[in-house]
Design goal:
The protein is an alpha+beta fold. It contains 6 helices and 8 strands, in the order αααββββαααββββ. The longest helix is centred in the last third of the chain and has 18 residues. The protein is elongated and about 65 Å long.
Length: 181
């Protein structure tokens, strides 16, 4: 989904390519410690995770008692799921939630809490693999953008389906071609 968003937003694509080109001359020499130099890539990944959450629903919980608040009533033993994708798009801080703006977290840094955008969950039950997933994503994106060009498919409109995870119905999102060396 990051590649899809980069193709739709040429300025973001160019800014990320500039950061990659400034920090990577030879991909084979990129080390884990080098990944901290990619601050804009961090923002791009966070924004992609917010807008296109990989997991549609957080693991279900069962209510242990009846619950009433105003016109909402939940029975005891009701299975409740938290829909992460909807939450990260309706947060009060995200006035333009449908827009892909990687810089939004920098602009509103003091306004964000760890619970506002939670692609890997948060708190004591957060995803234990999130650090590895982000490292792998960074390596993949850096390698891919150093070696391939992405272009937007003309007339393509993203249609996604939600099962346990969100994924596009049509998997041909972008045109990919190897860069000329």
């Amino acid at each position: 989904m990051t590649f899809y968003e980069l193709c739709k937003n040429q300025q973001i694509y160019d800014k990320l390519m500039k950061e990659i080109n400034e920090n990577v001359k030879d991909f084979d020499k990129v080390e884990h410690s080098d990944l901290s130099k990619f601050q804009y890539l961090d923002l791009v990944l966070k924004e992609t995770s917010r807008l296109h959450n990989a997991v549609a629903f957080k693991f279900p919980r069962v209510t242990d008692q009846d619950y009433t608040k105003e016109d909402l009533y939940l029975n005891k033993q009701l299975v409740v799921c938290h829909r992460l994708a909807q939450y990260s798009q309706q947060c009060e801080i995200l006035k333009d939630s449908e827009e892909y703006i990687p810089e939004r977290k920098n602009r509103n840094a003091k306004s964000f809490s760890s619970f506002d955008v939670i692609p890997f969950s948060t708190g004591p039950r957060n995803c234990i693999g999130q650090h590895l997933a982000l490292i792998q994503s960074k390596y993949l994106i850096i390698y891919f953008l150093k070696n391939f060009e992405l272009k937007k498919l003309q007339g393509y409109k993203l249609h996604a389906i939600q099962k346990h995870s969100n994924h596009p119905i049509n998997e041909e999102l972008v045109l990919i071609s190897r860069k000329k060396i």
